[in-house]
Write a structure and sequence with these properties.
Layout (H helix, E strand, L loop, with lengths): L2 H9 L3 H9 L4 E5 L7 E4 L16 E3 H4 L4
Antiparallel strand pairs: 1-2, 1-3
């Protein structure tokens, strides 16, 4: 399962709905991109190196980054 699919499942949303929400808001859903870590948080839409409080790394990306929309 891809990280965007994992994020949508964790958030209880369809991918399209999550992306639409992020497009019209000042925050977006984000997930850690490290394998085995599913830490999620709200981030800025252009976030590609957000801090993961679970792993302690700069590996959180927004859903818009994961889909290549930004």
């Amino acid at each position: 399962m891809s990280k965007i699919q994992e994020l949508a499942e964790i958030e209880g949303m369809e991918i399209d709905d999550m992306l639409e929400e992020a497009t019209f808001d000042s925050v977006a859903k984000g997930i850690c991109t490290n394998e085995g870590c599913n830490y999620t948080t709200e981030v800025e839409p252009d976030c590609s190196k957000g801090y993961c409080e679970n792993c302690g790394t700069q590996t959180v990306s927004s859903c818009l980054i994961l889909m290549g929309m930004i």
